[in-house]
Amino acid sequence: MLNYDLSPFYRSTVGFDRLLSMLDKAVGAEQNAPTYPPYNIERTGENAYRITLAVAGFADKELSVESRENTLTVRGSKETGVKDEKRDMLYQGIAARAFERRFQLADHVVVTGAASENGLLHIDLVREVPEAQKPRTIAINGAAKPARTIEAAPEKQAA
């Protein structure tokens, strides 16, 4: 069995760190993972990402994109219409099978839009960290006057 070390990717990912953790755990199950349709994940800005899936042969109405909690699900299914009986397929190299692809999103990553063009489905994501969880700078005050030590005089005992 091959061992893959994904630790170099951790320092270059911001929004998909949970995804890499899950990949790290599932290295043994990689052979059974679906490979259709192929996809790319790219960073388009400091807190912006894009997932691009190759969905050649699928119309917009045959694709669905759903975001629920921290899971993005992309489904595609060909409509089973009336086939042209005059056509006889000699070779079918373009896959037209139904698919479902799931992506685990990091916390605070939301889907902002999806567009289909030239056989590619683009899904745009943005990482929106709430104001309360953003890092903030704390001002450091200058050294105050040194604390004074007050010495107590010994008590006089009554005779």
TrEMBL record:
Keyword tRNA-binding: no
Domain SHSP: 30-143
Entry keyword set: Stress response
One Pfam family in the UniProt entry: HSP20
InterPro entries: A-crystallin/Hsp20_dom, ACD_IbpA/B, HSP20-like_chaperone
Protein family (similarity comment): Belongs to the small heat shock protein (HSP20) family.
Protein name in UniProt: Molecular chaperone IbpA
Species, as recorded: Roseiarcus fermentans
Taxonomic lineage from the root: Bacteria, Pseudomonadati, Pseudomonadota, Alphaproteobacteria, Hyphomicrobiales
